[in-house]
Specification:
single chain, about 290 residues, mainly alpha, 2 domains, 3-stranded antiparallel β-sheet, binds iron/sulfur cluster
Length: about 290
């Protein structure tokens, strides 16, 4: 069980340093080569203590995997198992796992035997005791995450002898596939468009971001029940993939968002779509 109030939220108020999100403030920052001691197993007295009264932000892949594990559509999963906190500082919607009732506020997936969704547990549960923050990217550069160590007193895992670097811990937790899949997501949330903190997406684009990143079943329905496919140059093979393969659809969603949110040339409109837009522009101007 590796779990906690982890956060990969980024702050975009002052480039290029990461402004540390509240849950990571005061935590010890840990360098790439630095070692930390940790171990987590069923014999520890604290077993499952960490699965209550926590904030667990879900990534797009977390939502997808949990929904599929529970045999739910993404829209049903989001409604039943998540919350979407709204604060004025957030420039993009975030999705949090809904916990059980007061006073314990236990994760609804935990039992005395441990995590009931272990193979599909969220990114932040795998990362614990590490947290990370992503500074905003400068144009043309990738943003590198900075890591922090959670050292809560109740967690006895810090007394274990085994030593890890950040990379070793991530490898042990099988994070590489998820992190590769979500490269496009990180590029969007740390996008230079947000640098300075003065730009805000309008409500329509916020909703588009939420649907594309988290509610993939609704995004798929939109793609295949509208003129979307005909409006862009898309290879038949890709269309088939996004119809049937969730991960292909997620990668495509990130690509589409860069076009739709930041006007990047990641999609090519078909001639007829361009003509339709030009015609509409001409009509408006005349
Ligand atoms: S060692 Fe820490 S992470 Fe593991 S079960 Fe105990 S409190 Fe949770
Ligand atoms: S998803 Fe699993 S590891 Fe994460 S808080 Fe819930 S029970 Fe714990």
């Amino acid at each position: 069980m590796n779990e906690a109030a982890n956060m990969n939220l980024e702050s975009h108020s002052k480039p290029p340093r990461a402004e540390v999100p509240d849950p990571l403030k005061g935590r010890r920052q840990i360098g790439a080569e630095e070692k930390f001691c940790f171990g987590c197993h069923q014999d520890l007295e604290c077993f499952t203590r960490c699965c209550q009264d926590i904030n667990i932000l879900l990534t797009p892949t977390d939502v997808l995997r949990l929904a599929r594990r529970l045999e739910m559509t993404t829209d049903d999963f989001l409604q039943e198992h998540t919350l979407m906190p709204i604060t004025k500082d957030l420039h993009l919607p975030v999705v949090m796992l809904k916990l059980g009732p007061e006073p314990d506020k236990r994760c609804t997936f935990v039992s005395d035997k441990g995590c009931g969704v272990y193979e599909d547990r969220p990114w932040s549960c795998r990362m614990y005791p590490l947290g990370s923050a992503l500074p905003p990217a400068r144009a043309g550069e990738d943003s590198e995450p900075v890591h922090f160590l959670f050292e809560e007193e109740f967690c006895l895992g810090h007394g274990e002898k085994r030593e890890w670097t950040v990379a070793e811990w991530k490898a042990d937790q099988n994070l590489s596939h998820q992190e590769e899949l979500e490269t496009g997501f990180r590029e969007i949330v740390s996008h230079p468009w947000f640098i300075g903190g003065t730009r805000q997406l309008d409500p329509k684009r916020m909703e588009m971001f939420y649907t594309c990143c988290y509610d993939l079943d609704t995004f798929r329905r939109f793609i295949f029940s509208s003129s979307f496919i005909n409006r862009f140059e898309l290879a038949d093979e890709l269309v088939e993939q996004i119809r049937t393969d969730d991960e292909a659809l997620l990668r495509f969603a990130f690509r589409w968002l860069r076009y739709a949110l930041f006007c990047e040339p990641t999609m090519t409109p078909t001639d007829s779509a361009t003509q339709a837009v030009t015609g509409a522009t001409v009509e408006r101007e005349s």
